[in-house]
Amino acid sequence: MTTLLIISILLVVSFVGTAIWRKRELPESISALVYTLPNGGWRYLWTVWIWASTFTLTPSLFEITPENWQILAHAFSTSMLFVGAMPLVKHEDNRAHNVLSIAAGIFSQLCVCFISPVWLLLWSVMAVLAIYAKKSEDFPSWLYCKGLFISEMVCWVILVCAIITKFIRTV
Question: What is the pLDDT along the chain (171 residues), one digit of tens a residue?
Fold first, then answer.
């Protein structure tokens, strides 16, 4: 299972990193990465990426989630697969995509509650960042309007770190 988890990490880091490198800025969200791809068939690459990163993360998540809480892991994975099936399209109603994206984020953090809850303390970094953004005039411009992307990445990092921590504890 750890091989699949490593593949998932590599998929996410490489795709997000490449998109940031190409655009020279942070995207507004993970879903907005679809706009970094050329029109046409290339847009399906985003769907394949979401599915591949989810399919390679999910076995590890199911393995370490307590049995009576695996419904949360299932809800997270299913939400992500539906999100991947509905990439953002400009000027179209994206309500289902948005709701499922939020649900995936919430379910991922609920899984962390039962895997390794200490990682939820990373959300304090988000709180400090939000307070700093409100109070400071010298807030970095490259972070302006990127809170959704940062929140999504924090969800992912916390989930991956919780999985890795649980694997290390069980070895």
Answer: 689 999 999 999 999 999 999 888 888 899 888 888 887 777 789 999 999 999 999 999 999 999 999 999 999 999 999 999 988 777 777 889 999 999 999 999 999 999 999 999 998 887 777 776 666 666 665 566 677 888 899 999 999 999 999 988 876
Q: Would you say the pTM of this structure is higher than 0.85?
A: yes
Domain ranges across the chain: 2-170
Measured in whole angstroms, the distance separating CA 149 from the mean position of its chain's CA atoms is 9
Kindly tell me the sign of the dihedral angle through the C-alpha atoms of 91, 93, 155, 60.
negative
Pair 149, 29: CB distance under 8 Å: yes
DSSP line for the chain: -HHHHHHHHHHHHHHHHHHHHHHTS--SSSGGGGGGSPSGGGGHHHHHHHHHHHHHHHHHHHHHS-GGGHHHHHHHHHHHHHHHHS---TTS--HHHHHHHHHHHHHHHHHHHHH-GGGGGGHHHHHHHHHHHHH-TT--GGGTT-HHHHHHHHHHHHHHHHHHHHHHHH-
Question: In which residue are the tokens 């992307």 written?
Answer: 149
Are the C-beta atoms of residues 57 and 157 closer than 8 Å to each other?
Answer: no
